[in-house]
Specification:
This protein is mainly alpha-helical. It has 7 helices and no strands. Helix 1 packs across helix 4 and helix 5 crosses helix 6.
Length: 153
């Protein structure tokens, strides 16, 4: 009987912590998935992919005749089904479960929903500002590059 007691104790001390750890991992992962759902990650990813294709075709008009193939290719690799687990893993790595829950609470609020809706436009506008600034000053970059000593190969 005493031997059975030791066996139960061993099972509890060896197996139970791992089981609890798995539950914690599962709930942490679920918290990340919930946050991403509230943040409309799937919808935003699709819009980002569409924007990527549109920008690529705008900057490379010679590719216009291949737009369907390019859209198919981009959609093949940039889609929620193929990226979801990797994105969840990123959030699990960077945020505690409690932080994910706090973020979810924020993004469920009216101001959080407004932030979700405005962020893509703000990011796009910010990128355009940066590109514009670089284009206006590209001569300076050319001078810097021209002033560098030529590297011998």
């Amino acid at each position: 009987m005493r031997m059975m007691g030791y066996m139960y104790l061993m099972i509890i001390t060896v197996v139970l912590p791992h089981t609890v750890g798995l539950a914690d991992t599962a709930s942490h992962r679920q918290a990340a998935e919930t946050l991403l759902t509230v943040m409309k990650a799937e919808q935003n990813l699709q819009e980002d992919a569409d924007r990527l294709v549109a920008n690529l075709l705008e900057k490379n008009p010679q590719l216009a005749s291949h737009d369907a193939a390019i859209k198919t290719f981009v959609t093949k690799y940039i889609n929620w089904a193929s990226l979801k687990e990797d994105v969840i893993a990123l959030y699990v790595k960077e945020f505690t479960e409690d932080e994910l829950m706090q973020l979810t609470t924020f993004y469920r609020s009216p101001i959080g929903q407004k932030a979700i809706d405005k962020m893509p436009q703000l990011a796009n506008a910010g990128t355009k500002i940066g590109v514009s600034r670089l284009q206006k000053n590209q001569e300076e970059l050319q001078q810097i590059i021209g002033a560098e000593p030529k590297q011998q190969k």
